[in-house]
Amino acid sequence: MFTSSIRTALRSRAIQAPRFSTMITKQVIANPIRLNLKQQIRGYSDHHEETFEEFTARYESEFETAYDLFEVQRILNNCFSYDLVPAPIVIEKALQACRRVNDYPTAVRTFEALKHKVENKEQYQAYLDELKDIRKELGIDLKEELYADEA
What is the per-residue pLDDT across 41-84, written as a single tens digit (0 to 9) for each? Predict the structure, then answer.
């Protein structure tokens, strides 16, 4: 008896379900004002193309404001995920951020990521020459120097 009353209640609910599609159709037909569809539909591909200078400035400021190890590593991950090699000033700010949060391994790994990101050994060497002073100032060794026998 109890189950039959539940079945009856469920059937009556199924029958009384509103039909939204017909309600929406009636509202659209009843509305005589024609709206510009370009204003209604958001263009997901419409975005500002960021220049390399804007990219560099954005990541410089992000590394300057990074406050803990998680933030530094997150910003590094985002920075290296683009299809370009960051400018030396961005790498310098990243190394300073690593020093600020006292994380030597991430500083070493930054150079590993840079080595894999550049196209050839000459570009990597150019980055090393450019960043030689900051490496010396912060005392950052390269993986090749730390594990010379494995390289």
Answer: 555 556 678 899 999 999 999 999 999 999 999 999 999 999 99
Q: Of 104 and 6, which is predicted with more confidence?
A: 104
Domain extent listing, the chain: 2-40, 52-146
**Three-state secondary structure string covering the chain:** CHHHHHHHHHHHHHHCCCCHHHHHHHHHHHCCCCCCHHHHCCCCCCCCCCCHHHHHHHHHHHHHHCCCHHHHHHHHHHHHCCCCCCCHHHHHHHHHHHHHCCCHHHHHHHHHHHHHHCCCHHHHHHHHHHCHHHHHHHCCCCHHHHCCCCC
The whole-model pTM stands at 0.67
Domain 52-146 CATH (choose: 1.10.10.10, 3.40.47.10, 1.20.1260.10, 1.25.40.40): 1.25.40.40
